[in-house]
Every structure is written in structure tokens, then in C-alpha cells.
Design brief:
With 236 residues, this protein is mainly β. It is 0% helix and 50% strand. It folds into 2 domains: 83 residues, Immunoglobulin-like (Sandwich), CATH 2.60.40.10; 87 residues, Immunoglobulin-like, CATH 2.60.40. Strand 20 and strand 21 form a beta hairpin.
Length: 236
């Protein structure tokens, strides 16, 4: 709200008689706020899809599934709820939340899938490469609806001999491989597993360890204690 007050030295009464109030409404196209795009369920279970939409004027919200439009079961605090009392076989698939007002249109796609194996980790990065180690970081993908997943990393050398196969600690998305040889090309890959099985392995990623460079700081520090020139004897 903006209020304009009018007064001067003859009229200094800041009351409603000397003011005017205007409401400023900022309009915007719809924006869908969500943190997920895939959800797992089983036949016979209940399930609720949610789609939170902000925008001004208030957007109209509707769902679309297999070219069929579906109304929201309920809208509370800008959140549209689509409820399933019991999931049927035909309920699996893609659902699109569509929000539209005078300024534009926004869509977000959700997928209902059966519980199963997780998906392969993504965004795999390599850093902190030394002559004997390197660090791996990655992002977990959809867990298959199990609620938890574990990760395994496998490292092989250029002859395709397995060097390391290790379980990454639970809820950790980075790991440092140690005990490698200097100036050696390695390949590594990552897999996710849950109670239903394992995901496909990621693509093999090459990593070359660094050459071991010895500097004066790596050498033992010598200090002469005594020297006998007649016997050519040096103690240090």
C-alpha cells in the first residue's frame, strides 16, 4: 500500500481527509516451485502429487495425463493436490502440471513409476589428483523409491585389471581413491544399489595420476657431526 499525504503550513492535519491510499499489485507469469519430478509407488498404495504455483493474477492450475485434463482435488496456499486413493496400473506414467494466467504459461512434468532399481549417479567430477590418489564427487539420481541407496566405485588400470572396488560410505557423495601408482592411466566407474538391485554402471572415466617429483624438502636433512681427515671418516 502507498499513501500520499497532502499538507502545508496552513493545513497540517495528516488525517484521511488529507491523504489518499493506493494498492500496488505486481503482476507476474506463473512460476512452478517444486523439488522433484519422479515418484515411485506400488499398485494399491495411496499417493498424492503436489504442484505449488505462484503468480499474479492467480493462475489457473490443471493436470494432464495421457491427453486427459484432470482438475485439482484441492488447492491450499497455492498448492494444487492430485490425490490417488489406490494406485492402479493405468495410473503410472507422466503427469503435467499446467499453470496459466494472462501473462504466461508454465508446465512441470512428474512421472509415477513402479518401485525398482535406482538410476545411475550423475555429475561425476574428478579433483585433487596426486601421484597416488584422486578424489571423486558425484550427484545421486532417483533412488527407485526405496528411500535409500549405496554407491560402489570400481577402478581399473589400462590393462583392465581391477585395482579397487569399494563401497562409498552411506550418505556420502565423494570419495578419495588411494594407493595408486604414479604416472598411470586409470579408468573408474560408479554404480548405485538399493534393495531392488543395482543401477547401470556409469561410463568409464579416465584419470591419469601425476608423476612423483622429489624435491629437496622430501630428502632427509643431513648434519655433519664430526669428520676425521686421516681416516676419511664422516659422521652425520
Amino acid at each position: 500500500l502507498y499513501t500520499c499525504l497532502v499538507y502545508n503550513r496552513f493545513y497540517n492535519n495528516q488525517t484521511s481527509n488529507g491523504s489518499s491510499t493506493t494498492e500496488l499489485i505486481v503482476q507476474s507469469r506463473p512460476i512452478i516451485e517444486t523439488t522433484y519430478s519422479k515418484i515411485a509407488s506400488e499398485i494399491g498404495q495411496s499417493l498424492t502429487l503436489t504442484c505449488r504455483v505462484i503468480g499474479q493474477p492467480k493462475p489457473n492450475i490443471i493436470w494432464k495425463h495421457n491427453d486427459k485434463l484432470i482438475q485439482c482435488d484441492e488447492i491450499i496456499n497455492d498448492i494444487c493436490y492430485l490425490r490417488f486413493s489406490k494406485i492402479l496400473k493405468n495410473d503410472f506414467g507422466i503427469y503435467i502440471c499446467i499453470a496459466e494466467n494472462l501473462l504466461g504459461k508454465e508446465e512441470w512434468m512428474y512421472t509415477i513409476v513402479s518401485r525398482g532399481k535406482p538410476e545411475t549417479p550423475t555429475d561425476i567430477l574428478v579433483s585433487e589428483i596426486t601421484s597416488t590418489s584422486f578424489k571423486v564427487q558425484f550427484s545421486p539420481s532417483f533412488d527407485g523409491g526405496s528411500g535409500s541407496q549405496r554407491f560402489t566405485i570400481e577402478v581399473t588400470d589400462s590393462s583392465n585389471s581391477s585395482i579397487v572396488t569399494e563401497q562409498i560410505p552411506f550418505n556420502s557423495y565423494e570419495y578419495t581413491i588411494r594407493g595408486l601408482s604414479e604416472s598411470t592411466l586409470y579408468l573408474f566407474r560408479i554404480q548405485s544399489t538399493n534393495i531392488y538391485g543395482g543401477s547401470p554402471w556409469s561410463n568409464d572415466i579416465p584419470v591419469q595420476t601425476n608423476e612423483l617429483i622429489i624435491t629437496s624438502d622430501d630428502l632427509p636433512q643431513l648434519r655433519v657431526i664430526s669428520y676425521n681427515s686421516k681416516e676419511n671418516y664422516l659422521q652425520f
